[in-house]
Amino acid sequence: MTGAPVSTVPLSAALALGDDALVLSHRLGEWAGHAPVLEEEVALANIALDLLGQARTLLSLAGDEDELAYLREERAFRNVQLVEQPNGDFAHTIARQLYFATYQELLYGQLAAGDGPFAPLAAKAVKEVSYHRDHAEHWTLRLGDGTEESHRRMRAGLDDLWRFTGELFEPVDGLDVDWTALRDGWLTLVTKTVDQATLALPTGPQLGAWTAGAGRQGIHTEPFGRMIAEMQHLHRSHPGATW
Amino acid sequence: MTSADWPLWEVFVRSRRGLSHTHAGSLHAPDAEMALRNARDLYTRRSEGVSIWVVPSAGITASSPDEKDPFFEPAADKPYRHPTFYDIPEGVRHL
Amino acid sequence: MTTTAPEAGAYEAVFDATVAADERIEPRDWMPDAYRATLVRQIAQHAHSEIIGMQPEANWITRAPSLRRKAILMAKVQDEAGHGLYLYSAAETLGTGRDELLDKLHAGRQRYSSIFNYPTLTWADVGAIGWLVDGAAITNQVPLCRCSYGPYARAMVRICKEESFHQRQGYELLLALSRGTEAQHAMAQDAVDRWWWPSLMMFGPPDDESAHSAQSMAWKIKRHSNDELRQRFVDICVPQAESLGLALPDPDLRWNEERGHHDFGAIDWDEFHEVLRGNGPCNDQRINQRRQAHEEGAWVREAAAAYAGKHSEAHREAQA
């Protein structure tokens, strides 16, 4: 199977998944030249490149990848708010990776097992995101069970981003996914890693958070507007130009 | 460990099935698991490998260049170990 | 070792013969102290250039004007981190650890290529860096694949192989701009105007002023003189610029039938020395960012080391 014809692909789902990957890839790209150690420059860039590749495939299913990335207004983006959160320190970035990569692996796993239009893409992507989850887990363990400072920072990262995780399990139109099973699987995996890292799963609103479902409706957080302003500026300054 | 200086690891990559692992280079990592992951990112990011070994550099015992002669000279007088030692009549193939 | 040590002279004779026979010197071989020091200095400078060189290009990752260009640029900046790592490893085989070299870089006691002290002001600068800066670097680096020191030569083989796409992407990027709108063409020409002369300076001072050249050539660390490589680069670039439809900013640039090479104008060596002294547009900015990333990453490196310590102890206890 070489990818379903565009007409059979649910547009909103392609945008939701594509925007998730696009936005997280952009955030990870901001680390270039700032990573805590050179080996991590290479690792974070690998993850960013995988995600950008996924974004390009998904957005191309929905239309022209560059038009969609560069010419939509903030309210038209369908990514979850979790992926647009600023990098913060390395622990925040790892917490975001842990939450999101675990979700993405389970989601793509289900899509790959099904026979929907995203199955071929998901089958390839699930291998990539499984490595992203592995990377996040290894760092969660080292930061959680490292020094006092790293423990404190890792806990802060997990806590701060917790309220953006409820949105991950809001059903997306056009995706044939068992969302309850997805959430249960996600909780099990994240809890296991967090426990092993001598940390505790955050408390506080998750599914009930007011943000839950907002990103998918085009309601984003303030930093996102600045992020896409930077991302789109050059492209928009030269209407119709090719690059 | 109080130092944040990560130890050095040597990386060996099997580029494809049927070949042995070959030394690709080295890198720093806090432990073996991370060394393996760093090696995967660094030395196989253009799909150069199917299997990776990492070994702490400190764990390698090497022959000393001073011992070169006693170590390697004996082999030098055993040319019969090398296929070019043997004359084969012209026309004989697949040897 | 307690075996009777041949006197240093005998070792030196072996070293000289190895170099003369065009064979490689390997890490545990005896080598003159000055050879070792020269290599550490050169490899470190090369490694530092790779990682400082990430900054001017990373400056445009978040603003790349198409997703294709963004992927290419990210992959390229990532390669530079990787190349820095290969080179620090090569230096490490000479007994100098990466941390020590980074400390020297951060303290301003070791150099990196001055070209990275110029700013990337527009998107076209990403193209100019790929075409001219990487082009000059490749001209310098290809002969290093035959450098007499094995680990350095092997690192360079890997780097040159991986870098082949860097220059091409830069050229392609500029070509798209040059053939694009008027504004895009002007952007490309402006970038070439700003990067051409600094690129020529990348080959180092003229041969008669180059402090380390003669000894490095004798040791086969270096294979061609600065001026020789610079001339080769100019000759390569002239027809490439024509195909791009962009002008090189040198009124004295013309073909010299007699020499079989292009003549070119005088390089402003005062500018070169000023930038080298730390007075270029971005010297402070580049080092500060590097230092900041290193300092802000300290707690991460400490955490991973602490974790490894705890868990190897736990592992030992479990086995006991």
TrEMBL record, chain A:
Keyword presence, Oxidoreductase: yes
GO cellular component: cytosol
Keyword terms of this UniProt record: Oxidoreductase
Coiled coil: none
Pfam families: PaaA_PaaC (PF05138)
GO annotation terms (biological process): phenylacetate catabolic process
Organism per entry: Streptomyces netropsis (Streptoverticillium netropsis)
One example GO MF annotation: phenylacetyl-CoA 1,2-epoxidase activity
Keyword presence, Oxidoreductase: yes
PANTHER family linked to this entry: 1,2-PHENYLACETYL-COA EPOXIDASE, SUBUNIT C, PHENYLACETIC ACID DEGRADATION PROTEIN PAA
Record's signal peptide: none
EC identifiers of the protein: 1.14.13.149
The protein's name: Ring-1,2-phenylacetyl-CoA epoxidase subunit PaaC
Automatic annotation (TrEMBL), chain B:
InterPro entries: PaaB, PaaB_sf
Any matching Pfam family: PaaB
Originating organism: Streptomyces netropsis (Streptoverticillium netropsis)
Lineage: Bacteria, Bacillati, Actinomycetota, Actinomycetes, Kitasatosporales
NCBIfam families: PA_CoA_Oxy2
Protein's recorded name: Ring-1,2-phenylacetyl-CoA epoxidase subunit PaaB
TrEMBL record, chain C:
First-tier enzyme category under EC: oxidoreductase
GO molecular-function terms, A-Z: phenylacetyl-CoA 1,2-epoxidase activity
Cellular-component GO terms for this entry: cytosol
Annotated EC: 1.14.13.149
Keywords recorded for this protein, A-Z: Oxidoreductase
InterPro entries named in the record: Aromatic_CoA_ox/epox, Ferritin-like, Ferritin-like_SF, PaaA, PaaA_PaaC
UniProt name for this protein: Ring-1,2-phenylacetyl-CoA epoxidase subunit PaaA
TM region(s), chain numbering: none
Biological process per Gene Ontology, one example term: phenylacetate catabolic process
Keyword Cytoplasm: no
Statement: the UniProt record of this protein carries the keyword Transferase: no
Gene3D superfamilies reported in the protein's UniProt record: 1.20.1260.10
